[in-house]
Amino acid sequence: MRIHRFLRLLPALLLLLLPLLPQRSMAQVSKAVSYQFMQMTTIESIVAGGLGRSRITFTPEFKGTKEAQMENLFSLTGINMQNVRANEETIIRTLQDVQAEGWDLVQVTPLTQTLQSGGSTGQGIFMTRYLFRKAK
User: Fold this and answer.
1) 82 three-state secondary structure
2) Helix (H, G, I), strand (E, B) or coil at 43
3) Residues 6+ apart with CB under 8 A from 43
4) Where are the chain's structural domains?
5) Distance (Å, whole) CA 38 – CA 102
6) Contact (CB, 8 A) for 55 and 77
7) Run of H or E residues at 61
8) Does this model's pTM top 0.85?
9) Residues of the chain with pLDDT under 50
């Protein structure tokens, strides 16, 4: 009779003791993956009068390209919204090309630099750095 009682209590005891038992990790142990990295930087000039240089640069080269042109944000009359839109389309198209080649976006860092001369800010740049990685 005592054995019969013990057998009835055994499942409850196991449920209580199970969390106390050391557990083996079920996480998969993956091999260390080696990556290659690429950085894409967009540089948009805000030099008045359309004299600035706006570019996309790649380190290392992407599909044989080190640098690609973009439109200047300013013209003689001020900010040129058509150029802003053209640059946005260029950046999106380039990001799609990079992704299509198997690169994963890891980090985006926005940067701004304004040059001051005589108390005014007549020139500067907007930079954005995109860090990509791809398994070797």
Assistant:
1) helix
2) strand
3) 53, 54, 55, 56, 57, 125, 126, 127
4) 34-135
5) 12
6) no
7) strand 54-62
8) no
9) none
